[in-house]
């Protein structure tokens, strides 16, 4: 699944949480259309279904959350996760939120980068934006974080018509720190001429 994350100013706020007074059983009964006073024995509900039911109650299609409108929700049983698709009202950008019972947290900024020629420009830009940004003007902040972060994955990659900047971490502080570095890199890169000279060359063998 690809994530298309927007400008850092438009961060998705905390979701509407379930009220503590609402029990899981009551929530399931409402979801299944059953009466709360039914005396019929209820089948056992797996933890995956319980988690997905709780997750689906957090965001509802058509409702607004800090400038974002929830456009679609879906439980994906094959991966035991619930997906929520949001669209920002002001910019039209899409944000895909994945809710899963997993200690590893993943974040990715994705762009549609359709090439117009064979110069390899999207791949050059992928490397160039990671050579310093407005908030982090140091040389190669991406590579400096490889041995300073608790990340379980850090990378950037260019496909035929897209560019991805994903990372993951099990530590929340580290996750937020990497998130700020990635967002600043892709939205406010320095893009110095020397960086282009470093990244924008190739050898063509006759």
UniProtKB/TrEMBL annotation:
| Entry's Gene Ontology molecular function annotations | metal ion binding; metalloendopeptidase activity
Q: Which domain of life does the protein's organism represent?
A: Eukaryota
Name the coiled-coil region(s). none
Naming one, the record's GO cellular component terms include: mitochondrial matrix
Which keywords describe this protein according to UniProt? Answer: Hydrolase, Protease
For biological process, the GO terms are: protein processing
What is the official name of this protein in its record? Presequence protease, mitochondrial
């Amino acid at each position: 699944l690809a994530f298309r994350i927007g400008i850092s100013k438009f961060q998705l706020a905390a979701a509407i949480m379930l009220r503590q007074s609402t029990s899981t059983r009551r929530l399931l009964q409402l979801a299944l259309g059953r009466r709360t006073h039914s005396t019929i024995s209820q089948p056992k509900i797996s933890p995956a279904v319980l988690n997905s039911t709780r997750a689906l109650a957090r965001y509802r299609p058509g409702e607004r959350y800090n400038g974002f409108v929830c456009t679609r929700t879906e439980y994906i049983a094959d991966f035991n996760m619930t997906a929520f698709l949001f669209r920002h009202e002001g910019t039209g950008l899409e944000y895909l939120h994945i809710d899963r019972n997993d200690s590893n947290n993943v974040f990715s900024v994705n762009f549609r980068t359709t090439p117009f020629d064979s110069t390899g420009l999207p791949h050059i830009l992928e490397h160039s934006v990671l050579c310093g940004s407005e908030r982090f003007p140091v040389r190669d902040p991406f590579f400096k974080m490889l041995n300073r972060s608790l990340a379980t994955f850090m990378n950037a990659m260019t496909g035929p018509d897209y560019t991805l900047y994903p990372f993951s971490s099990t530590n929340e502080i580290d996750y937020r720190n990497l998130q700020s570095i990635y967002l600043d890199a892709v939205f406010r890169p320095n893009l110095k001429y020397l960086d282009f000279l470093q990244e924008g060359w190739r050898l063509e063998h006759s």
